[in-house]
């Protein structure tokens, strides 16, 4: 057992002592103008669903149970009405505005302030034992004043094209905007966390999605068995970006460019009037930021919590040697920039199923077409300016003690760190989590208390690699195995059409039951006879037949994967999880 697990840091101010007592112990939101009525309805819908999932579990985990109160009995219907009457969309809007004033990447002062503000909000909302728990972890940052760039070079080093390394700010400005010019610049930087710092100058090779089968096809059909220091041009999609980098590096790549192809991100076409801000599709200079670390959690403390009193088991050099951190520069590009590379490339045409959505002939390379003129491209250069730093992150924990089984925990979580402002990912979920906590705290004030303890978790460091939640799970593994019944995760609420759920089969019926009790806020859906969010979910996502034993009334439910904070709870400890969001059917 790790030292301190029994007391859950009982010797520190940022502990969870109260939990172990068996006694009752993207842009700022205003840049999207005011929050729409539909989005407020959507967030309320998410709050209702999350709350009903909790109600189904805080008792005996059965449907239509009676939930005992400390002083008097409440039925499940009583609790549902009590909670629903407490939900306020305006409070969620206020929370969302509060946490999206500035870019707030993990480990920055801006994100520390966001965590402090959320902690104070939770205390005001009535959660018990609210505290921030710190970890010292390895994080990655770009040079905020020297953007990463890609340069196409001709004869004698002549610059034929150079990216700016910045995504232009396309959001409308309001007079009440408090964002500084520095904030906007930091929001524009194009980067991938944990990329190696450095410069690579070589020839490009098109590698499709960068999957092992793609590299095998390059060797079999095009005779490219090794990349020999060349620059791999890889599309976003299908696999985790860190795996793409790892596969390319294993085959000798000197650098990797991961680009967003309009086939995936500009469904109505790449023209400016068909992308943001005129639609939700990615504009031509937009990029997908993310992490390329090949593990979850702090890379220097595998399987151990990154506490001050624990040694770092691994050095940065060892993490790179073991391929957990890349040894080569990696950069994201938008399709307006990558076309400057792809349209110049030589070599054979790509297979038909490797073509993307740009109006060019996609070619394998290596290298560029040579037409015998002075503007022929000769080399491609990738410049990445990045740093690795030990920084402090802080998880926010708050509880509502259970009345009869306080050592049985129902956990709800979300993260609050963001690549930029985080108005959708993750802070739409942050607003939902705060309102769920407030509603349950209000119910306690009105005489009810859950049978089991509710644990509310706002994680830090998620974007860099699920770091906050992973460190928490590693520190309190034995306690969580003994006490955690379920973990509910809500990361991003980005759509207003249909509920999407990922969970384990034993929770399918509980999820469906909760969805059937949430009224449908979308008028067009109600006009079609879909009176609950279950009806819409079932209509748009009918069961695929993956589980032949299921009732046909169960909509399509996927098993939980990776990519968000439920992962360590399920994969490391085997704790049941539910991950839910909302999406538009048109997204596929």
From TrEMBL:
The keyword Transcription does not apply. It comes from the Eukaryota. InterPro entries: PA_dom_sf, PA_domain, Peptidase_M28, Peptidase_M28B. It holds the Pfam family Peptidase_M28. The keyword Transmembrane applies. The chain crosses the membrane at residues 41-59. CDD domains: PA_GCPII_like. One of its GO terms (molecular function) is carboxypeptidase activity. Residues 395-580 form the Peptidase M28 domain. Keywords: Membrane, Transmembrane, Transmembrane helix. Residues 207-293 form the PA domain. PANTHER family: GLUTAMATE CARBOXYPEPTIDASE 2 HOMOLOG (PTHR10404:SF77), N-ACETYLATED-ALPHA-LINKED ACIDIC DIPEPTIDASE (PTHR10404). Belongs to the peptidase M28 family. M28B subfamily. This is Uncharacterized protein.
